[in-house]
Automatic annotation (TrEMBL):
<dbReference type="GO" id="GO:0000049">
    <property type="term" value="F:tRNA binding"/>
</dbReference>
<dbReference type="InterPro" id="IPR049940">
    <property type="entry name" value="GluQ/Sye"/>
</dbReference>
<dbReference type="InterPro" id="IPR008925">
    <property type="entry name" value="aa_tRNA-synth_I_cd-bd_sf"/>
</dbReference>
<comment type="similarity">
    <text>Belongs to the class-I aminoacyl-tRNA synthetase family. Glutamate--tRNA ligase type 1 subfamily.</text>
</comment>
<dbReference type="GO" id="GO:0006424">
    <property type="term" value="P:glutamyl-tRNA aminoacylation"/>
</dbReference>
<dbReference type="InterPro" id="IPR004527">
    <property type="entry name" value="Glu-tRNA-ligase_bac/mito"/>
</dbReference>
<dbReference type="InterPro" id="IPR014729">
    <property type="entry name" value="Rossmann-like_a/b/a_fold"/>
</dbReference>
<keyword id="KW-0436">Ligase</keyword>
<dbReference type="GO" id="GO:0005737">
    <property type="term" value="C:cytoplasm"/>
</dbReference>
<keyword id="KW-0963">Cytoplasm</keyword>
<comment type="subunit">
    <text>Monomer.</text>
</comment>
<keyword id="KW-0030">Aminoacyl-tRNA synthetase</keyword>
<dbReference type="Pfam" id="PF00749">
    <property type="entry name" value="tRNA-synt_1c"/>
</dbReference>
<keyword id="KW-0547">Nucleotide-binding</keyword>
<protein>
    <recommendedName>
        <fullName>Glutamate--tRNA ligase</fullName>
        <ecNumber>6.1.1.17</ecNumber>
    </recommendedName>
</protein>
<feature type="domain" description="Glutamyl/glutaminyl-tRNA synthetase class Ib catalytic">
    <location>
        <begin position="3"/>
        <end position="274"/>
    </location>
</feature>
<dbReference type="InterPro" id="IPR001412">
    <property type="entry name" value="aa-tRNA-synth_I_CS"/>
</dbReference>
Length: 444
């Protein structure tokens, strides 16, 4: 058995961070087991599905490094659903129902008013041929429900939630097809999971009750069901399901300077008992991936945590990995000098401006000016070929008795215009003798 997972988004919008997490876990689980990860475009809703969203889904997965081993789409498979649906009808497992939305709503309200669960009463199942014909004659087209088998207990051992049990009698027969002939997602998904030989369905816990009905559909179609992992949902930092999470997607992260590795490292681990760690290479994340380590409490997504993780990822990225995104002229030495001070790669441009100049003159105190005049003279005499920063500060320390902050800060301010920044020993050779002398002279 080849482990096969699928990520099954509906192309009705862009992927949000919760979707990205589901995709990631499907990919990781497949990779951890030498299996296959498939992308399935759930576009049965033709009115709401758009090609531009299909493209952005593919691009978002590519950005994260999640390359599918295959892609399918539901709109190409309507014939297949039709054929399998005909089997259900022939076996009496799908039946036509004629209630209007208002009638169904009324039934629900009556039950709720009596304190009863709003389970569909199966009135349509009791219709005679003549009654059905009468509805059809009125011009009413039926929608179709899947008939749950009330005698077949619904049980599965969920990879995240543990043993699950549903009593089919307490559930409504789900509508699988609308009166206009279009499909709801439930049934096509089962047909696809069978045909694509899906072994593990990994999705959010909002699908748990869908799974209960889908398990009976697998049985009705004569197939063994896949294993299921229903993950606790993602919540914002405040611990609530936030609207904001629903709108955070790859565009936002890219614009905020987040690297895909940071998002992968975070989404791989939040909600699990493993610590969030700045892995640039997903291999260790994949190797340790195990649904048994997922908790049932919602996973907290914290943008501040992501930003911190991102900085730790950036600090590890090699020059070759980032060269194309750096300003012209930045060398591998420069990248290594600047890198430890970056929260994002884009910030490299700020430090590169400091290296190349011109810099904004800093606020220097009057008592530092004679010291900087002396620094300018010293800088003209030292050997610039080896380690000019230590040569300069060593000579000035001996000559002036200054040390620590009193020695270093005025130099840093004069040479970079800033109080903080990358290691001066690395930065000064990049600034170079001429520019350094000019900056010190300007500051004295
Ligand atoms: N298209 C469904 C959704 O977006 C897929 C759920 C599933 O993974 O089966 O929720």
């Amino acid at each position: 058995m080849t482990v096969t997972t699928r990520f099954a988004p509906s192309p009705t919008g862009t992927l949000h961070v919760g979707n990205l997490r589901t995709a990631l876990h499907n990919w990781m689980f497949a990779r951890a087991h030498g299996g296959r990860f498939l992308l399935r475009i759930d576009d049965t809703d033709r009115a709401r599905s758009e090609e531009r969203h299909v493209e952005s889904i593919r691009a978002d997965l590519a950005w994260l490094g999640l390359v599918p081993d295959g892609e399918g789409r539901q709109s190409a498979r309507f014939d297949r659903y039709e054929a399998r649906f005909a089997e259900l009808v022939a076996a009496g497992r799908a039946y036509p129902a004629y209630e209007t939305a208002q009638e169904l709503d009324l039934k629900r309200k009556v039950l709720l008013g009596r304190g009863l669960p709003p389970v569909y009463d199966r009135a349509a199942l009791a219709l005679s041929d003549a009654e059905r014909a009468a509805f059809e004659a009125e011009g009413r087209a039926p929608h179709w429900r899947f008939r749950l088998d009330h005698d077949l207990p619904i049980e599965w051992d969920d990879l995240v939630r543990g043993p699950q049990r549903f009593e089919p009698k307490t559930m409504s027969d789900p509508v699988i097809r609308r009166a206009d002939g279009s499909w709801l997602y439930l049934f096509p998904s089962v047909v696809d999971d069978i045909d694509m030989a899906i072994t593990h369905v990994v999705r959010g816990e909002d699908h748990v009750s869908n799974t209960a009905t889908q398990l009976q559909m697998f049985a009705a179609l004569g197939s063994n069901p896949p294993a299921f992992a229903h993950e606790a949902l993602l919540v914002g930092n405040e611990g609530k399901l936030s609207k904001r999470l629903g709108s955070l997607g790859v565009d936002h992260f890219r614009q905020s300077g987040i690297e895909p590795q940071a998002l992968v490292a975070l989404l791989a681990r939040i909600g699990t008992s493993d610590p969030v760690e700045p892995h640039v290479d997903p291999a260790p994340l994949i190797a340790g991936f195990d649904f048994a380590r997922f908790g049932r409490a919602p996973a907290r997504f914290d943008e501040a945590e992501l930003a911190q993780l991102n900085a730790r990822i950036v600090h590890q990225l090699g020059f070759d990995a980032v060269a194309q995104r750096l300003p012209d002229g930045v060398t591998s030495e420069a990248w290594e000098a600047i890198r430890p001070n970056l929260a994002s790669i884009a910030e490299a441009a700020d430090w590169w401006r400091v290296v190349e100049g011109p810099i904004e003159p800093a606020d220097l105190s009057p008592e530092d000016r004679p010291f900087l005049a002396q620094a300018a003279e010293t800088a003209a005499q030292i050997d610039w070929s080896a380690d000019p920063w230590h040569a300069l500060t060593g000579a000035l320390k001996g000559a002036t008795g200054r040390k620590g902050k009193a020695l270093f800060l005025p130099l840093r301010l004069a040479l970079t215009g800033r109080e903080h920044g990358p290691d001066m020993a690395r930065l000064l050779p990049l600034i170079g003798r001429d520019a350094a002398l000019a900056r010190l002279q300007a500051a004295r």
